[in-house]
């Protein structure tokens, strides 16, 4: 399929990508769901970060607003992915509709955002999964050594790096084994993690607020607390005047940004397009993306309402308020720990807390998958050394690209542990994603006119009231990105710390643009000296 075909396939590294379409719709739904908002992991930390930074936020309203904001992005991405179902995603679309310069900027922005995400989830494993599990088990079995190790994995930089490297090495081995095996491991880990999360839901559904308070107070007494620890946590956090309110937009709007940090990526399966069965079917993409989005929305809301029912909003604000001395437990107030306290059954606690060890790997899959495919696509178009486009004929995995990307993740991990907080690191990932989506929105808007020959024969050729759907959803998608940038500037606590650091946002975005341009122009000059005009590559779609 290509209206671009000129018979010049020799311009590419070879006449076939080497990949096989072996990913199913189920694989793609899970791929999106665990990349964008792995429910249990997001509940454990991401959702409740806003309660400490923005007391009074209505998290349910923020999730529903995020649902609406994601709709135009999904419609835009599904149309483009089905029109040009190739490895590389936005890099292929933008380069064939707009220009290779903008394509490298867009692709680099997405890759950098994903690398940030990969680093985040590598760090998440020791800090929010392994560490809390060891502390919980240590508390359960009265083992101070386990508690000490657990605390080290949550606070000591060396321990954090070591714990994260375990996940990076495991992820590298699985990726090299091939796409089919990678998706299989992703699904297995996701199922185990989800079962643990649903066990937490069950504990909260069948427990009672009185029982939780009794169990929490008893545990707190073991660590030196006196009196009613539950009420003391609420009072110590000053949460009495911080009730959730639909009209408290100064708390809820920045919380939308926090939710979108995780949930704005349900279109990420476009990077599976080169290996997805039926990837030229637009409705298939829409179903995949919307299913993962609704999955996340429904179960995030369910999880939050169940926790509020047992624990209470005011307690969650107090427990998440920094410096609240009334909270004396060695376990941080993560979702899975609080759910296990509700019934205080050792076996159930073991299963709930232990299952959270399985969230990081599936969440990392999409975050490393896209940069690997981006490096491959750049190399396939001769922007990078041809060796990086090599694909193992047995496993169909691009081993050189995998090793390159995982080396970058390791370097970024070491830097991020010493230099940034989780919130700042995630916000940078969102801003990088903003650059990608805005450029894709421009390409989508111009697709019907700049590539009319391809558009008319593509699944993207859809109209609403006589207007191309792409020309409706692409401006809306861009406006969503404008809102996210505005939120970072309006509410410095999201990322930049103080208003004086507002210049960081345009500087960071400008840096991505510059690197993306260098990624194109330096190889272009090198190839020109070799007698190769790489611009000719962008006149046709890459081979499958």
Please characterize this protein's 3D structure:
Helix 9 crosses helix 14. The protein has helices spanning 25-36, 39-53, 59-83, 90-97, 100-140, 144-155, 157-176, 179-206, 209-222, 229-236, 249-263, 282-310, 313-319, 335-343, 346-355, 360-380, 399-419, 422-450, 452-456, 470-490, 504-529; strands at residues 463-464, 467-468. It starts with 24 loop residues before the first helix and ends in a 15-residue tail after the last helix. The protein has one domain (9-539): Amino acid/polyamine transporter I, CATH 1.20.1740.10. The longest helix has 41 residues, at 100-140. It has a two-stranded antiparallel ribbon with strand order 1-2. The chain is built from 21 helices and two strands. Keywords: Cell membrane, Membrane, Transmembrane, Transmembrane helix. It is a multi-pass membrane protein. One of its GO terms (cellular component) is plasma membrane. It holds the Pfam family AA_permease_2.
């Amino acid at each position: 399929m290509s209206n671009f075909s000129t018979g010049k396939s020799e311009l590419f590294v070879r006449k076939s990508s080497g990949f096989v379409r072996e990913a199913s719709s189920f694989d793609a739904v899970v791929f999106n769901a665990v990349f964008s908002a792995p429910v249990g992991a997001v509940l454990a930390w991401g959702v409740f970060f806003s309660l400490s930074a923005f007391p009074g936020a209505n998290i349910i309203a923020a999730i529903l607003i995020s649902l609406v904001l994601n709709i135009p992005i999904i419609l835009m991405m599904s149309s483009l992915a089905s029109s040009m179902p190739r490895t590389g995603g936005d890099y292929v679309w933008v380069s064939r509709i707009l220009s290779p310069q903008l394509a490298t900027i867009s692709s680099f922005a997405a890759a950098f955002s994903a690398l940030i995400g990969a680093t985040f989830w590598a760090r998440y494993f020791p800090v929010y999964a392994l560490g809390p599990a060891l502390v919980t088990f240590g508390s359960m079995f009265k083992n101070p050594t386990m508690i000490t190790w657990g605390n080290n994995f949550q606070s000591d930089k060396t321990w954090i790096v070591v714990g994260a490297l375990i996940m990076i090495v495991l992820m590298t081995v699985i990726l090299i084994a091939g796409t089919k095996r990678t998706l299989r491991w992703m699904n297995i880990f996701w199922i185990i993690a989800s079962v643990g999360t649903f066990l937490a839901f069950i504990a909260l559904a069948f427990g009672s607020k009185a029982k939780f308070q009794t169990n929490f107070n008893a545990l707190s007494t073991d660590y030196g607390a006196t009196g009613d620890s539950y009420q003391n946590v609420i009072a110590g956090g000053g949460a009495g005047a911080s009730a959730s309110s639909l009209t408290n937009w100064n708390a809820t709007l920045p919380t939308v940004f926090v939710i979108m940090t995780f949930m704005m990526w349900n279109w990420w399966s476009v990077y599976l397009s080169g290996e997805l069965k039926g990837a030229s079917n637009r409705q298939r993409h829409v179903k995949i993306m919307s299913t993962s989005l609704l999955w996340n929305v429904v179960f995030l809301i369910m999880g939050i309402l169940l926790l509020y029912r047992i624990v209470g909003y005011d307690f969650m604000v107090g427990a998440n308020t920094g410096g609240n001395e009334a909270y004396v437990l060695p376990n941080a107030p993560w979702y899975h720990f609080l759910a296990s306290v509700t019934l205080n059954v050792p076996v159930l606690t073991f299963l709930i807390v232990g299952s959270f060890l399985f969230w990081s790997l599936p969440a990392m899959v999409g975050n490393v998958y896209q940069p690997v495919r981006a490096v491959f696509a750049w190399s396939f178009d001769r922007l990078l050394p041809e060796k990086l486009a090599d694909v193992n004929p047995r496993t169909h995995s691009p081993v050189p690209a995998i090793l390159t990307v995982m080396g970058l993740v390791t370097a970024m991990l070491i830097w991020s542990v010493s230099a940034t907080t989780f919130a700042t690191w995630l916000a940078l990932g969102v801003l990088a994603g903003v650059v990608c989506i805005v450029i894709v929105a421009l390409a989508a808007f111009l697709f019907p006119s700049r590539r009319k020959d391809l558009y008319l024969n593509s699944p993207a050729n859809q109209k609403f009231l006589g207007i191309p759907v792409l020309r409706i959803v692409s401006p809306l998608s861009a406006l969503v990105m404008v809102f996210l940038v505005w939120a970072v500037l309006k509410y410095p606590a999201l990322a930049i710390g103080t208003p004086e650091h507002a210049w960081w946002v345009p500087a960071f975005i400008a840096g991505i643009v510059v690197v993306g341009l260098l990624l194109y122009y330096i190889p272009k000059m090198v190839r020109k000296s070799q007698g190769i005009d790489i611009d000719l590559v962008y006149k046709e779609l890459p081979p499958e």
